[in-house]
Design a protein that fits this description.
The protein has 14 helices and 18 strands. It is α+β, with helices and mostly antiparallel strands. The protein has a domain of 347 residues: tRNA-splicing ligase RtcB (Alpha-Beta Complex). β1 and β2 form a beta hairpin. α4 runs antiparallel to α10. The chain is globular. It starts with a strand and ends with a strand. Bound molecules: guanosine-5'-monophosphate and manganese (II) ion (2 copies). Guanosine-5'-monophosphate (5GP) binds next to β7 and β18.
Length: 497
Amino acid sequence: LKLEFDSQSCGVSLFLPEGTKPDKKAVDELRSMMQMERSVERMKAEGGFFENPDSSVRRAAVTPDFHKGAGIPIGTVLMTEGFVIPQAMGNDINCGMRLYTTDLKEEELECSLSSLLPEVRRIFFEGGRGIVMNGIQREAMLKDGLTGLLETLGEAVGKGIWRFYNREEQEKELEYTAFRGSLKAGDTEGLGDFTGDPHTLSYDDQIGSIGGGNHFVEMQRVAEIYDGQTANAWGIRKGAVLIMIHTGSLTIGHQSGRINQIITKGLYPKSIPHPDNGIYLLPERGGMDREWRRFRDTTRNAANFGFANRLFLGLMLQNAVENTVRAFEMKLLYDSPHNFIWEREAEGRKYYIHRKGACSARGMEEMEGTPFAYYGEPVMIPGSMGSSSYLLRGMGNPDALWSASHGAGRRLSRGEAIHGSDEEFQEFMKKFHIVTPIDPNRSDLKGRSDILKKWEESIRSEAPYAYKDIDQVVKVHEDHDMAGLVARMEPLFTVKA
Ligand code: 5GP
Ligand code: MN
Ligand code: MN
């Protein structure tokens, strides 16, 4: 399906489940986003903004889980030349998925759940994270991501969570992480409070947080294999246990987003009308330009934090499992952002691919030089805490701007989901294990209907019926050569903040 908006030179390709119509509110947002071309024309007429005379919106596509966002719809992929639109990567910069394979068996976990789940709660929510760092490490992490952590281990070695951090393994994992988990930034603007004293080891309450809403840490069992060859190469067998992690850059990312908004708005010429939707662009400039440099640094600080946050959540889960089940092997398959801006070079030109709630799904040729050269980029599409999630391999469909969905997408708003059917909710709760910050069965919570109601609402708003049918979303990827199915997973338990 292709949408053409009048007055615009480029249309938008929509990849949606057969027989479904695009959400009207989301299409309105899309239309308004495409007005960006008008800002470009106006700024060109003013002169002095763009270094690249060909600056323009090149193309856009939307993924099968397309739905309304705040300003720009979720599932939007936008290709530009000569400028970026910071808001087109969403608020949670480098929100993404991380997937590990393990040598655990589903039976082993099932019979240990009664001790494992309370331990997970203790580690994730009751002060058990153990992420101790000094200011030097935090600064290195923000400026150089996972490489920064590797280079500043120092006195933290062997303390707290670092007992599960193995230097050689971590170096190997970089190859299985988009951008090798490291984006070099020159500065850490406004983040002094977070980094703290350079030489004092301390904990903070931010890193190692799952974040609210649809973020999660989940152990899954492989229920079905569709592509034996790829599954085999990736270490995935039926009945195997996987760990899927979904989180982003928390308040660090929101702060970066605010800085980007100030930069772009401040740059916009006062003499011409501002865009109605409050979405601004930032012209690409040589390395010395102050605005461009601030944008790059602040965006990269957030992205680096996101990679590190997912890494720590993985180590925390490892800690919980090793304390209650056994020592086990955990191998990273892939870590990939779904809120970010990628650079893409073709025929001597440089483009920016913005993805907000969409992931990169490059095919084999484009993965040359990585461990995925013979398979394509791993694509992780979670469903919900009570449905299947899928693993696919990217096929690099250029019409979809080399992208895929990052989830099922919401069907009901949070408010609607809270007031969903009691029956469905009870059925879901009987079948699935959810670890939340509070244990509703705690004896001191008896009669605390205020607390229990809040707890129930937070689960209801994320219940399976709040999301679209994941099977339908995944099918579009196969039908349009966006990505090929590798395996289907089912949740063993889900950790939700
Ligand atoms: P988003 O990145 O837009 O915040 O969410 C990504 C997707 O994650 C959602 O569209 C939904 O399909 C999926 N999702 C939300 N919560 C859970 C969960 O607890 N477990 C799994 N497996 N998927 C979830
Ligand atoms: Mn996300
Ligand atoms: Mn997020």
